Amino acid sequence: MNNKKNKKSKKRFFPNALTILNMFLGFTSILFIMRGEYINAGILILLAGLMDIFDGKIARLLGISSKFGVEFDSLADTVSFCVAPSILIYSLYSNNLHFILGLIISFIPLICGTVRLAKYNLETDEDSHKSYFIGLSTPISTVTILAFMYFNNQIGGGEFYGNPNIALGLVIFLGILMLSPIHFPKVPLITFKSSSENSKLLIILIVCSFSIMIWKGFALLPICLGYIIANTFLWFFKIRPGNI
Fold this sequence. Notes:
mainly alpha, Four Helix Bundle (Hemerythrin (Met), subunit A), two-stranded antiparallel sheet, 8 helices
């Protein structure tokens, strides 16, 4: 029995280490935001997103998913995809707003994200087998904000990060989507031996990944908006991911 417990605890080390790295990257990104290094902060948040993808998948692959892992992952996500984007929005886009209004809009990623994570934790047991999230995930919401920032910076260069009014409108829109009943596909399993739907999503993911590597910010924003708009469209026309 002790040997089995030791083996399980050793297996848990790697996904938990990725979760800790996710949290550390999110924390470090906040420090970069405070120093006005928004591009570097965004890169760290994107790396945190990769850690978030792999920690859960590795835990499930090794058969060591646990309540602790789910809760710990959510706490890390709160730092990287709720607190960090709220501070980024306040620092970068709320300068021309009244203090209270800027505070309220900047608070949206934090409040909507934490509610979204709490709901996800409650639904994990019954929905873990599903290939979709109910409501936009906090990492995708945050990456979309970063995509807007990168896209505009690549176009305008220097200290240009996009029109603040559009950015704040996007934040409100993403906050609504996080709390919505719309279904958004999860990151597919990294295998072509699963379902045909998983294989299609994996091919799309590979193409998108190569596009981002080549065109960076020019590709990231259209990909994020395409993902959101396409799945919102499918929802309103009653075509549910996982049911086609």
